[in-house]
Amino acid sequence: MADQRSGGIAYCDETWSPAIGCSPVSDGCKSCWAKRQAARMCGPGKPYEGLVRDGEWTGKTRLVEHVLDAPLRWRRPRTILVASMGDLFHESRSECDIHAVFDVMARAQRHTFLILTKRADRMRRFCRRLSFIGPKELPHLTEPSCWLSPIGDRTAVPLPNVRLGVSVEDQPSADARISLLLQTPAASWWVSVEPMLGPVDLKPWLPRRCGCPEQYTGRDCPACHGTGRIRLVGESLLDHVVVGGESGPHARPCDVAWIRDVVRQCREARVPCLVKQLGAHPHWQHGDREVCGARLSVRGGESGDWSRSRVLRDRAGADPAEWPADLRVREIPR
Questions:
Q1: Percent residues over pLDDT 70 in the chain
Q2: pLDDT by residue (tens digit) across 260-269?
Q3: Inter-axis angle of helices 171-181 and 120-128, nearest 10
Q4: Residues near 182 by Cβ (< 8 Å), separated by ≥ 6?
Q5: Is 28 inside a domain boundary?
Q6: Based on the structure, what is the number of domains in the chain?
Q7: CA-to-CA dists, residue 119 to 88, 93, 182, 258, angstroms
Q8: Is 83 domain-assigned?
């Protein structure tokens, strides 16, 4: 657990890791932040013993029972990122462990929980089998649950305080994971495009612009009720997008034009967007000159692919004061 209010992850107040451990599934896992943190605490008797070896995840996972009920003790409502030190839907994690985490979220209705996974198919299958309708005893908790009940193939009832999301790094991963996400019962869907390793087109999963006639203003429009966007009946669309470049000692370059394009897509669809960081190696093309407090170097040679590199004071490129003004976007859904 870590308080995020003084810096840290920009889109949450707290992290909560009752489920730890992971293994790589795609190119976005190569410089995993959580893996680097766990490697520092993987010795005998340490929290991540057996989960990391030689700097890499072993594929083993663990439920940390002594932090499982922590959100039930937090009285101030918070936005909580779940399982930041692993993937809640890892293939080696038992369904009982996932049930235990969902049970706590169900009973801590004052908080908003954010879940990210790269294993969108398992999340979809798990959530389709759940309903929050009756008592069920879970061995990990000191008191009985009153929410979770498996319901077979019937329609699941999503928790109103849980936002489900997937992490993507490029267009192929977005195509594979976002469609599965939007088939998953949830009160809200979101995507983290981080680390961004290539351009990503999110338009197929974003709301279309409202075609309101000019005479309609505010909430008068019968199509969009003042939101400025159309969501067709039965249509699942993204509610929030986070985007950022890669950080860490072996971070790969991120073209700022890719981030700028995601911001533009979200603005046109009127979907909240949050730029988390530009990454350790942000690159600009010749036209982008407004970069605060950065050192400029010329790179790329004849190819022209990476013609301008800015070395920012913040090693992760996470200080908005160093960014061009149009990228200082930190929107969070209400």
A1: 74
A2: 999 999 999 9
A3: 0
A4: 189, 205, 236, 237, 238
A5: yes
A6: 2
A7: 9, 12, 13, 24
A8: yes
